[in-house]
Amino acid sequence: MSRLRTLLRDQGLTLFFGTLFVLTLVGQALTGLAYFNEEQRGAGLEPVTLGQYLTSSVFAVDVAENWQSEYLQFLLFLFATVWLVQKGSPESKKVEDVGRESDEKQKVAEHSTPDSPAWARVRGWRLSVYSHSLSLVMGTLFALSWLAQSITGATAYNEARLRELEDTVTWTQYLGLPEFWNRTFQNWQSEFLAVASMVVLAIYLRERGSPESKPVGSSHETTGVEG
User: Fold this and answer.
1) What is the reported pTM?
2) Quick one: which of 61, 78, 69, 84 has its CA closest to 190?
3) Residues 94 and 12 in one domain
């Protein structure tokens, strides 16, 4: 097998969703520009170029508000699945495994294997950090994208108010406005619905060969088993 084919096989999932991300981001940029320029012409203003639109607060806030909700979804799912279970779902661990689990089961420190990550083989602050590294990174990405949403949202909001010859608001004032929280909640509720739907539907429905599904012949009550 050639090196390229090996790369495509071994990194296929990342490449597939990475490509979809780029394509849909381009689609968002082009359709967003068309919609924005329609509004500009309707208001008697000059249309903007693609470059101007991509560097505008309008585009930035639309991107950031979606990113922050996605990272929040995964962050909460990481925490929730440590302590909460859903009997019958492959998205849940087994009912008896609730909690952080033993060092032996987690293969850390003296229970590590030769191919364990370096920070998993030693006790101390490095093990503590690495034990929560995924949620730390997800939480940081959520915080940064939510901050970006709030800043760019405030800028876009003020630009719209200036066009209407209205007073602008500060960033802290914007954080208390319904406009900001409406943008936030409409994304959060959709993410939470999607996660809840996947957890419950995977109890009764199957997708043969997918690790997100139980084996086709598994009982509905089988928990924490992937296909």
Assistant:
1) 0.89
2) 69
3) no
